[in-house]
Specification:
about 375 residues, mainly alpha, Arc Repressor Mutant, subunit A, 3-stranded antiparallel β-sheet, 2 domains
Length: about 375
């Protein structure tokens, strides 16, 4: 038996020994996907009604018979077992379906009712693998016109798999939060929100994680994103628990004007976990040129441009470390990856410098004043 792999997350495809199988008819692919997910034998009458609801039973069974013949010719009798009244894929270690694998990995961890002690490192690894498998929505971009039973089944699968994914992400957030791995927890929380942007509990979790990482500006931005998406999609406001969390963060973020206005406090080199030094191979010429420009008082802004993925960020970080000794106040790398509005650039810079300003003041003016 050859190695057969079904990829049903995203646009469905089937591979044999790493080579894509060509299935031209949509109902043939739909039938193969349905049989791959259902491990028990399926009756011919059920399959005929499922895919050909517009026909009478005899005509539907005839269409099914033709489709099964095509699939058996493609897969072979050692994989697709066709009996008089039932059909089933023969399972073996060489028969792999991404959705089945996802379900097996996520089994037992779908609900937040499991106690924290129920998740051990092996369980966390399984959940992380499950999340990796879920690369897109189930059979995204694939549909059958005028076939309501199939579309109902697909929607049901999407709903169940999405719930399982959110359950896995929630447990991963819980675990990494409890281990004080806040950045990892935040990554899973953002994935959670990407899956369900309307989930207010996920917005709240991410806001609290930003607070634990000493990023109140990010927490406030997250609340504003929640307000926007709820207003746009549901024409409603966040629940009271989120509003209270937002107000609490605003209060915690304020500091006295005296501390802000002290200009004798130098800007220090702030340790930043996102700095990736030591991996800049070569680039000696570019690093020398950047250091020269950074030392030039007339160079107020220096931009590195180029195609994505060629190493601009690593080069910039290494150049900063090369030049650190030239600046009495040190250097700081600040990522603006998650900043979606110009208004939040100054708060993000202040946050990285471990500064905090009153909410009613203009953060840009205060930041310029502090750095002057």
């Amino acid at each position: 038996m050859s190695y057969l792999r079904f990829f049903l997350f995203g646009l469905p495809r089937i591979e044999r020994e790493g080579h894509l199988l060509s299935i031209n008819r949509r109902k043939s692919l739909a039938l193969a996907a349905y049989l791959a997910l259902n491990r028990e034998p399926q009756s011919r009458d059920t399959l005929a009604t499922f895919l050909w609801p517009e026909f009478d039973q005899n005509t539907a069974r005839a269409s099914l018979r033709t489709t099964l013949w095509q699939l058996r010719k493609l897969f072979g009798p050692d994989i697709l077992k066709i009996e008089r009244e039932h059909v089933v894929f023969i399972r073996s270690p060489l028969f792999w379906v991404d959705v089945n694998q996802f379900q097996d990995l996520a089994a037992g961890y779908k609900s937040s009712e499991h106690p924290e002690s129920a998740i051990d490192p092996a369980g966390i690894h399984s959940l992380a693998q499950a999340v990796e498998l879920y690369r897109a929505e189930f059979m995204a971009g694939f549909f059958l016109q005028d076939c309501e039973p199939f579309e109902d089944w697909k929607r049901s699968q999407i709903d169940g798999l999405t719930r399982a994914l959110i359950g896995a992400l929630g447990r991963l957030v819980d675990f990494h939060d409890s281990m004080k791995a806040y950045e990892q927890a935040a990554q899973y929380a953002r994935h959670w929100l990407k899956t369900d942007p309307l989930d207010e509990s996920a917005h709240g979790r991410l806001m609290k994680l930003y607070l634990k990482m000493n990023q109140p500006a990010s927490a406030l931005r997250q609340y504003e994103e929640c307000v926007q998406v709820l207003g746009t999609e549901l024409n409603t406001e966040p629940q009271e628990f989120l509003k209270k969390l937002y107000q609490d963060i605003k209060k915690q973020r304020t500091i006295s004007q005296t501390d802000v206005s002290r200009k004798d406090q130098p800007i220090v080199s702030v340790p930043n976990r996102s700095m990736q030094t030591g991996f800049c191979i070569g680039r000696k010429k570019e690093r020398t040129e950047i250091s020269k420009l950074l030392a030039d008082p007339n160079c107020r802004l220096l931009s590195l441009t180029g195609l994505g993925g060629i190493g601009k960020t690593v080069l910039a970080q290494q150049a900063l470390m090369d030049s650190a000794g030239a600046f009495a106040d040190g250097v700081c790398f600040i990522s603006l990856t998650h900043v979606k509005s110009f208004d939040w650039i100054s708060p993000a810079i202040a946050e990285a410098l471990k500064l905090s300003f009153p909410m009613e003041e203009d953060p840009q003016k205060l930041l310029i004043h502090h750095m002057g």
